[in-house]
Amino acid sequence: MSQAVKGKVELDKTREAMVSLGLDHGAELLGDLLTQAAKDNLAPHRFLDELLAAEISRREDRRLKTSLRLSGLPPGHTLESFDWSFQPTVDKKRIETLATCEYVREHEPVLFQGPPGVGKTHLAVALGVKAIASGFSVNFFRLDDLLFAMKRDADVPPRRLRSKKYMNTALLIIDEVGFQQMTRQEAALLFRLVSWRYQKGSTIITTNKSVKDWPEILAGDEAMATAMLDRLLHHSHVITIRGDSYRLRTKRRAGLVNQASANLATQTD
């Protein structure tokens, strides 16, 4: 057997061993990395470092993609894509501090409040992306979807309820709180969720209502609103955003808002 054939057989055996250990990506790159290592005269431990680094990088990419898909986070919302110049009321340094995910480690809530279209959801989702990158589990729900899930699980025993993703995820993002009043059952279920997650997991809420208006949201129950806000605001980070709607600004630039107004006026006449 020639040296070349012998070398190929030995390399194939190494690849098979790597695949059996789950190092599939490293097995694919083995030949190229060996060739490069020989050219660069790399020490064996340096070659091993590069091989393992490539495998770890591929696994991390897969983890991120899978976690993002399972989280339910809307795509395309990152801190890098946020238009800071359009919303000067947002304290960029404060958001960047939150992006370190210390609030997740400390099980602290974050509340984004402000009118529609000012970037609350974008920032909440962007923080969710950062949390996933830092290794935390994240789940995103619009309030209507969350209430539907909780009503479906209303009779689930507490022991089994703890396994639900909206209960046990490290970071729960609840979007669009305040657009409509909840029924007493819905308010009670949300209170149960907030109470259970208190100091056990971090929760981000986006709302178009000031906290003083929460009794109105929660079926007019001031006592429940007070108890819920007591838990949400304890060691919390409250971010208030003021300004125009980003979506309306984009439509104005395209001339769509004025046209829509004209159409409405025509239909009304």
Structure, described:
This protein has 269 residues and is an alpha/beta fold. It has 2 domains: 63 residues, no CATH class; 159 residues, Rossmann fold, CATH 3.40.50. It has 14 helices and 5 strands. It has a 5-stranded parallel β-sheet with strand order 2-3-4-1-5. Strand 3, helix 10 and strand 4 form a beta-alpha-beta unit. The radius of gyration is 26 Å and the shape is elongated. The termini are far apart. The C terminus is likely disordered.
Along the chain, the helix and strand elements come as HHHHHEHEHHHEHEHHEHH
Largest sheet: 5 strands, parallel
Into which percent range does the helicity of residues fall? 55-70%
CATH class of the largest domain: Alpha Beta
Q: State the end-to-end CA separation.
A: 93 Å
Mean pLDDT: 88
Q: Indicate how many domains the architecture comprises.
A: 2
Derived from helix and strand composition plus strand pairing, the structural class reads alpha/beta
Q: Kindly report the name of the CATH homologous superfamily of the largest domain.
A: P-loop containing nucleotide triphosphate hydrolases
Strand content: 5-15%
Shape verdict: elongated
Quick rundown:
Helix content is 58%, strand content 10%. With 269 residues, the protein is of the alpha/beta class. Strands 2-3-4-1-5 form a five-stranded parallel β-sheet.
